[in-house]
Amino acid sequence: MIKIVEYKEQYFDEISELLASFRVVLEGFKQNKKNPDINSAKEELRDYINGKWPIYIALVDNKPVGYILLRVDGVVWVEHIYINEEYQRQGIGSLLYRKAEEYSTKLRCDTLFNWVHPNNYKIISFLNSKGYTVLNLIEVRKPFKGEKPHNKIKVDINEFDY
Fold it and tell me: How many other CB atoms are there within 10 angstroms of residue 90's CB atom?
């Protein structure tokens, strides 16, 4: 049985593990290999909790298997959504998004805004299936010291390192 609940401290360790896995997946989009860093994830999660960022957790048989983290800044941003790989494609992401959309509606926001890696095809496909089709912005920066981007990505007529 799947339940979506608001974050509770009793789930801190499990959500930290999921957050550490989320960070590994993100690095993989840039072709970087990274091991889960539980201590950094705990510190990061503590910052979100202290900042009162809304967090919803997906429970399967009372075990956390995924989460969605929201940031409210005039609009509601989906900062993270992560579901343990063995529980993906079972409707959990849809339930988490529905809860996030309900939260956004309570704040009288028309939509959710999403940060997405350009080659995260799974989430892009998922968002398209939910009606999220408007490209809102492109984040551009100089490379970090020592950073060597592995890919190029094209948006309309512009090409960027990625």
Answer: 15
Find the mean pLDDT for residues 104-114: 94
Question: Cα dist. 110→104, 131, 135, 153 in Å?
Answer: 7, 13, 16, 30
Assign 34 a pLDDT band (cuts: 50, 70, 90).
confident
The two tokens of residue 56 are: 């919803």
Residues in the chain: 162
Contacts (Cβ under 8 Å, ≥6 apart) of 148: none
Q: Which structure tokens are listed for 138?
A: 């492109």
Using the CB atoms, write b or e for 67-87: b if 16+ within 10 Å: bbbbbeeeebbbbbbbbbeeb
